Amino acid sequence: MKQRYLYLFLTLLTFVAGYVFLRLAYGVTDEFPFTQEIVLIVLGTIATIIITAALLNRQTELELRKEQQVKTFELKAEFYVVLIDFIEGLISASKITDEDRLRMKFLTHKISIIASPAVLEEYEKFLEVFYKIAKDDAISKMESKTLSERLSHLCSKIRQDLLGDEGLTEEEQNELDEQILENARMS
Prior knowledge:
2 domains
């Protein structure tokens, strides 16, 4: 941020110094109209260069930010798919091993790096249910349904994190959450 202000200050200083110099040069050359025109051409060229440089700098900054957002999105999406696939495998196997618990711990560390606060909050609720069910190393049909329901809540928050559903009203978001939950119940 300080570097940005330094560049802004140096640009302003250069512009003011250039303006003063060209103003003096214009005043000195008032006896020769052709020379005045050359000074005006130089002034116009300098103004065009400064404006173009500022626009290109801003455009580059926006492009870099966009690339970073795309990479972050891809990283999140890839991780969330891995997480959901792992949970799907647990529910399908109907058995939880020590290796599964260990993998869940590592996934917990990874999700803490990339997930939004809402996803982390919902993931914590999912983990509470998961570890209650995991005590006996088996997943019954009823426990499977409970896990699936918690997973649907988690998926809703993941969706918000990935797609940025900030444009939805609270009512629309609740309807969407209910639809996701209903889909989980039906499957």
